[in-house]
Amino acid sequence: CPLQMVYDYLAAMGYEDPLRIQREAANSDLSCMIRFYKRPVNADQQDRTLLKGVFNVRKGKTQLHKWAERQVILCGTCLIVASVKDSLTGKMHILPLVGGKVEEVKRRQHCLMFSSAGPQAQTYFVNFDTLAEYQRWHRQASKVVSQTISLVDLSCYSLEEVPEYLFYSQDITHLNLRHNFMTLEGPGGLLNLPRFFQLKSLNLSHNRLGVFPESVCDILTLTELNLSCNGLHTVPPRIGNLQSLQTFSLDGNHLSSLPEELGSLTQLCSLGLSFNNFPHIPSVLERLSALDRLAMAGNRVGTLELSCLARMNHLKSIDLRLNGLRCVRSETLDPVKQLTHLDVRDNCLCTLDLSSACCLESLQCQRNQLGALTLSGFTLRTLHASKNRLNTVNVYPVPNQLTHMDLSRNLLEYLPDWVCDSRKIEVLDVSHNLLSELPTRLLSSLSLRKLLAGNNRLQSLPDLIDHVPLEALDLQHNKLGKLPESLFYKALNLKYLNVSANALESIPPSSQSEESLSTLQELYLTRNNLNENCAALLVGHQNLRVLHMAYNQLLSFPASKLSKLELLEELNLSGNKLKSIPSTVSSCKRLHSLIAHSNHISVFPEVLNLPEIKLVDVSCNELTEILLPDSLPATLQELDLTCNHSLILEHKTLNLFRYEYTHTQISQRDSLGTSTLWDHGYAEMSGQRNKLCVSVLAVDHFGDSVEAAYGIFDGDRNEEVPRLLQCTMGDVLSEELQHSIVDSVYMSNTFLTSHRKLGMAGQKLGASALLCYIHHEPSEPGSYFCLTVANVGTCQAVLCRDRQPLPLSKVFSLEHCAEEMERVKNTKAIITEDNKVSGVTCCSRLLGCSYLSPSVIPKPWARTEPLCPQDEFLILGNRALFQTVSYQEAVNTVQAVRDPRAAAKKLCTLAQSYGCRDNVGAVVVALHIGEDSCTCEPPLTTSTGGPEVRGTVPAAMSAPAPISVPPMGDPATPSSSSGIASEFNSETSASEVGSEAGSTASDEHTSNSAARPERRCSLHPTAVTINNTLFQRQPSCTTFSSNQSDNGLDSDDEVPLEGVISNGSKLEVEVDIHCYYPNGKMRRQNSVVVSTTNGCLLAVCGREISDLKKSPSTSSLFGKKLSNGSVVVPEDSHNLIEVALEAPKKKSGYFAAPAQQDPEDQLVVPPSLEQEVREQLRGQSPMVPGPPLPSTPPSVRDTDWDHSQTPVPGLPAASMQQEVYDTAL
Q: Which residue numbers delimit the PPM-type phosphatase domain (predicted)?
């Protein structure tokens, strides 16, 4: 039943409530994930039928045959001529064209001669009616005759039968019917496949056959047969008929045994049995003498008998990954001489002794539980044994053929002597061990080219005795106080050096003389104790392309030395004490990235004239002014000036790029009280990728209560899905909060609904997602806050509690989660050798990639953690961040930085300096939840209306902050290294705008379940009741620097705007933004758009959104792409800077006078309440008393995380706290 199929599909996705499943089944978006076909695709739509029509045809070259009208079809590589006009019934004349000829007949207009190849060649003349038809047939037929292999690809066509036309193409040798619904019976069923008597290759994988199609055993010409993923339980004995079979794929079925007749296939050299149910290696394989490679990954082989392998003396390569293998043993002392490659990754081995495999060349045993490993070294070439518990590795004799060895992430305290004795070793990875020293002979090896020894306990390195061929050296995260003095002039081939996170106070010179032969190209010195004297020693490395010296003790960078680094492409000097960047940086003509955030820089560096500059990040500095050229360079993708609190920009500068002051605040958070409870900052960096595939959701004021929502989305290599999630997921969470108060339910449904809303984009693309929601416990409204976290994929959340990391998420990758690996194996998905589902993704749960269902599902893992005063901050990061930065280091890093935004930037900078080349994203949420933090209490009285609507995103936005600056000609340029492009302000990112856009939909209906009790306190002001109508006052305070204003008046004609308190260069605007009605529903009033940029105030009051769309100055704000590529749907919250930039200009003194009240700048009362409000206002004072603004809780735990609001100078405190000006009057 189709309805039952849809029900089962949605239940497998993660929906649990039957009523919710019924509602989801009726949603039209579901067609992007599951679809029913009434009939298979018409055969005429297949690629095989190239051309057809009714033309005059004559057979043979003689005049004995007459011209007759016949239907002619060019199908595949054959010309088919019907014996009856306009009909395919009767005899069909088939002319194979491969190797034949197609020639023009000059004696007859628009006529072609088709001839087959061979001694018994036949000829047909076809006369076309028009020149266009003649040319089209000539062109297509010429391509056909030039083909040498007849390949038919009908995969993914939802076919039930083979098109009948194909059976007339007898030259077909390769037929691909993968991903269809092929049946046995019928004219085009699998029973008729033997009609292809020249067929050599047949692919029937992913057809859900259920039974083995025995008819294929009659195609005796087959050399390749693929029946993977068909749910097969047995293989028939007739398989022995295929004596020419060389490749046989049976992966992803339910096989547990093979017939003895399979042993008669003497030419079979490749057999795929992966992801079946074999409990042991089938004995019939002993007879397959030509078989040299056996693929049995993902079966149930618990014990491997080496004596059994000895009898299969033809097998050279064996793949036994993911078998649950617990023991490898040998009952006899006979050597296993033929085995050269063995793969036992991802099993449960505790010990492994392969000393009897004397010819073993390659061993892969990663991700086991090995404590000891014993190998034969006679022919050993590569050894991969990372992520085990090894404390020793025994290889005898010395492996003189060994070239590559990976022993990372083990428990090694020393390196065995045989490692230094190996003569040909080129790559050695011993990172993440317990090594305290490296042997002198190792660094003096004449073969070693790459040494990775980071994350150990090294305190010193031995001196280099002689010149060595070392090209890459990674020593990060050790305890090194200095490097060998001769490092650079003894390792002349050294191109990559990473010594970040050590205790270095100096670096060795590049040479012993003034002339340097250094070839160093990448140098990473982040997080050491280096000063400016060390920077002077870099001048000898004139081939340097990448230099990272972030978070050291640099007070300056020598100007004369920087000018010598002419090939420099990327320079990172963040986190030092620099006051300026030398002007000689303009000598670095190839520089494309300058990252110098978190310094004391006061003058903008001279880099915008460089021809290849793409990224300039001077955020978190002390810039006061910026001098820009008349036009920004075309290559510039991002310019980050955020967190420069003294920076003042002229309007000319604003015309060059979009920018919002970090110190300008539209302080909605004061009225909600969240400014004292949490604050956030985030950073995104593209690294060495050419696009940014990480997006962030950050809403400090989520819903109509004291709540917040944060999220991070990582698309790996696609940017579309993360940005869609960024714009929609907050709104989906808001809607799901209407239907349930159970955290696991609304979080799970939020992910599942977001998965559905991805639409067509979510079919082939996907993203990891993490969402955090800070709220009160719904069952205890007066309780402390709770943090609910849900995630899919590899994005993670870590809470700092008592200065220790507390992981809150679960990593859904095949390598990290054994339960998910078993679940994916049970779906019979193929896990490739790089541990990816169907070769696509390493994640078992994602939003998107619906075509991989049920192997990859969107159901999240959810967890709720009560927050306490010991919780300092929350860190959200993607896979790349936590692969390079441990939980503890991330916590220590954030603790050392006061500002959340600077902390997020530091995390991303450290990840890149530690070797990460992918996109990096980090969100830091500072928590200030003290023991006496005020919480809202349930109301004493209940309104006559319905339950309070929950979860809507407020219309007013909070404090503006960083905008990444692409060139004005390309507003959709993706973010690059610093990744600030997706944020509109420090409180609300671009994703919030997207989440707000659809939130009004949830305003129009109430919750179906029990409504949450209303909570009001000083952090959440109560509404003012007028004649049973609730008007909630939410003052919005705007503070900015302004000496000029443009409203068409001179400064002498200044008339103060009613409702606006003006005091010199400071303004405060207080606005009504919400209107509550007695029935419990909330409706948005006609919007008040307040924009502040460089002193420009634009208030649009009482105007419909449709009017704003028509306005030339605001039409570009609706449905516009964000600077990071996100598309924001139309709404009444706009990018404030864009409104200011498009304001009308005046030649004489732009912004020459303060704003004056415009007749339209009035708050319009809804028509249905106009008369009632007028009657009420006649007897009332025009000043409506409002609630006092909240004060800072007295028990804020950590003053370092406080960001108190600066009061407006010259404005009486009583006026700010006691009165709300009524702009409606």
A: 679-927
C-beta separation of 822 from 830 below 8 A: no
- Other CB atoms within 10 A of residue 998 CB: 19
User: Which one-letter amino acid corresponds to residue 777?
Assistant: E
Task: Report yes or no: 1078 and 1028 within 8 Å, Cβ to Cβ.
Answer: yes
Give the pairing type, strands 593-595 and 570-572. Answer: parallel
* Token pair of 1152 as six digits: 């020459």
Place of tokens 């507390």: 806
Q: What is residue 847's DSSP assignment? A: E
User: Containing H/E element for 295?
Assistant: strand 293-295
854 upstream amide cis, omega within 30 of 0: yes
DSSP, residue by residue, 181-245? ---SSSTTSGGGGGG-TT--EEE--SS---S--GGGGG-TT-SEEE--SS------GGGGG-TT-
pLDDT in tens, 513-536: 777 888 999 999 999 999 988 888
The model's confidence at residue 750, banded by pLDDT at 50, 70 and 90, is very high
Please give the structure tokens belonging to residue 704: 């109509």
Q: Which pair of structure tokens corresponds to residue 927?
A: 């928590």
Q: Is 797 helix (H, G, I), strand (E, B) or coil?
A: strand
Q: How many C-beta atoms surround the C-beta of residue 1064 within 10 A?
A: 11
Length of the chain as a residue count: 1225
Burial class (CB in 10 A: 0-12, 13-18, 19+), 45: exposed
Residue tagged 């503006």 (tokens): 960
| Closest to 1188 in 3D by CA, of 1214, 1224, 1221 | 1214
**Residue 396 belongs to what H/E stretch?**
strand 393-396
CA pair distance 5, 28, nearest whole angstrom: 16
Beta-carbon neighbour count of residue 173 at 10 Å? Answer: 15
Strand locations in 938-1028 (E): 1024-1026
Q: Indicate the residue type of 931.
A: E
Could you tell me which residues are beta bridge partners of residue 82? Answer: 92
Q: What is the pLDDT of residue 121?
A: 80
**Range among 1-5, 590-594, 783-787 with highest mean pLDDT value:** 590-594
CB 596 within 8 A of CB 617: yes
Q: What's the token pair of residue 934? A: 């005020």
